[in-house]
Amino acid sequence: MYELNEMLHLKKHDKITNPGDYIVLKGYMACKTAKQLVYFAKQGDTILVMDNFCGEMLEFEAKTEVLLVKMPKEEPFMLARRKDDLQLKLIEALIERVQFFSIPAKERMYVLLCQVGKEIGIQAGDDCYIPSVMTQREMGAYISCTREYLCVMRKNLIEEGWLGEGRGWKLLNWERWNQQWGEVIAESVPVQITQL
């Protein structure tokens, strides 16, 4: 059982400053590097905040109110194994993020929406709803386009039947999104990362 002093409450935009392993109990966290999105973490996900050189380049920012619990100390072998797994996930996400910028802006928008849908999307029927965790300005920065271009792309996606009308991001026919855009980056990454 976790003790209450191991709980961490974050307000929107707060960042985790203490190294350690955490479990997200409530809310959404964005892992970023150089103000670029690496991935989102949601309830039930484990995040690793490192204190080495790599850790200084990453930040975990609360995108909503967040409740975290710090993982208790484990046996050294188990802790090393779990850290290796989390670091492998992070390296793969960083490689995909670099590859992301080799595709055109319109495709980057599709891929980003698909990534966020997979990581934190809420499926309802055939569709996937993305929680309000990104402003248009942030999304434009993640895709590397202007806010105006983002609005034009959004309008086109609605007209083409990829997005639902109205506020927010409702990805229509989630299975189609996954088939078309779910593996675009993974397929273009030629190197398979393996654990040592």
TrEMBL record:
This is Crp/Fnr family transcriptional regulator. It comes from Listeria booriae. Keywords: Activator. InterPro entries: cNMP-bd_dom_sf, RmlC-like_jellyroll, WH_DNA-bd_sf. The keyword Transmembrane does not apply.
